């Protein structure tokens, strides 16, 4: 087959065949499989998208709503008797501090149990805000909320990264963010509706914001006060345990995902936990720069 010695690309740049070949090698390698055709591979990956990315996006959405409902409660009248700035501050103290631990626990416990459990716990905690009468109790609940919600973002980010190749994972993170942000836009509308319950049961409107949004979180997490059956079945585990997820992938399809990840970066099989390896990325100066930029 004849190949042009030069290939035109956007912007007027010119690349030779060797450069173009090296750029596409990783994509071709991950799409080659001895069992499934290219179309079958895409069908499996899209099934993972519908189950995993959508569920993670919705969980993150409710996390953002519960985290930001204090501002809506302030509009509803909570500011008159409480210093909300301190209540906001103490949340991030535990939220940031417990994130490294959450990344370890989700690998140890498993995403289904871990994410479902913290969803239940922070939903109950948010409901508790609607029943407190003392300022110190509200501060304490906010500290506890930070602990439970600290696991949602690093847990989901870690889970998504284990399912996709380096080229694909960026797109999934984008969809995950979009689902969370779009759905979070309805948080103010929900809060306004709950504010109209002012006086019901002798409770102020701002209390109903916490009670109802906390109740929504418990229901969304598909967890009843008795068992967490539906959430346990709906959430997806790591690829090496994907065949255990309810009505998800077969053993052959799971093996395909693992082969695909191993061809891309060779880390589909989890390694034993090592504290030194876990802390090693903290020595990378670029991570600290990115953290400062995001402040």
Radius of gyration: 23 Å
Overall residue-averaged pLDDT value:
74
Residue ranges: pLDDT <50 for 5 or more in a row? 1-15, 17-26, 219-228
- Beta content: under 5%
The largest sheet, given as strand count, sense and whether it forms a barrel, is: 2 strands, antiparallel
What does it look like?
The chain is mainly alpha-helical. 68% of the residues lie in helices and 2% in strands. The longest helix has 38 residues. The protein is globular, with a radius of gyration of 23 Å. The N terminus is likely disordered.
Task: Give a summary of the structure in a few sentences.
The protein contains 14 helices and two strands, in the order E-E-H-H-H-H-H-H-H-H-H-H-H-H-H-H. The longest helix is centred in the first third of the chain and has 38 residues, at 38-75.
Give descriptors for this structure.
14 helices, 295 residues, disordered N terminus, 68% helix, two-stranded antiparallel ribbon, mainly alpha
């Amino acid at each position: 087959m004849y190949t042009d010695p030069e290939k035109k690309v956007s912007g007027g740049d010119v690349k030779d065949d060797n450069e173009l070949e090296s750029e596409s090698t990783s994509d071709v390698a991950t799409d080659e499989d001895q069992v499934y055709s290219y179309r079958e591979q895409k069908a499996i990956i899209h099934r993972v998208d519908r189950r995993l990315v959508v569920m993670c996006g919705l969980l993150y959405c409710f996390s953002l709503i519960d985290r930001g409902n204090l501002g809506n409660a302030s509009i509803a009248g909570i500011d008159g008797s409480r210093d909300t700035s301190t209540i906001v501050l103490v949340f991030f103290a535990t939220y940031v501090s417990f994130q490294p631990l959450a990344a370890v626990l989700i690998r140890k416990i498993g995403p289904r149990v871990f994410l479902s459990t913290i969803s239940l716990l922070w939903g109950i905690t948010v409901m508790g805000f609607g029943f407190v009468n003392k300022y110190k109790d509200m501060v304490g609940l906010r500290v506890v909320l930070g602990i439970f919600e600290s696991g949602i973002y690093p847990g989901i980010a870690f889970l998504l990264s284990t399912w996709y190749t380096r080229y694909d994972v960026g797109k999934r993170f984008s969809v995950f963010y979009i689902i969370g942000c779009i759905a979070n836009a309805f948080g103010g509308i929900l809060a306004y509706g709950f504010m109209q319950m002012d006086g019901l049961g002798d409770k102020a409107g701002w209390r109903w914001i916490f009670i109802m949004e906390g109740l929504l979180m418990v229901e969304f997490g598909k967890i009843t006060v008795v068992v967490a059956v539906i959430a346990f079945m709906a959430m997806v585990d790591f690829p090496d345990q994907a065949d255990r997820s309810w009505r998800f992938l077969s053993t052959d399809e799971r093996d395909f995902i693992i082969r695909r990840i191993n061809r891309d970066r060779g880390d589909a099989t989890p390694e034993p936990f090592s504290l030194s390896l876990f802390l090693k990325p903290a020595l990378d100066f670029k991570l600290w720069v990115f953290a400062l930029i995001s402040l």
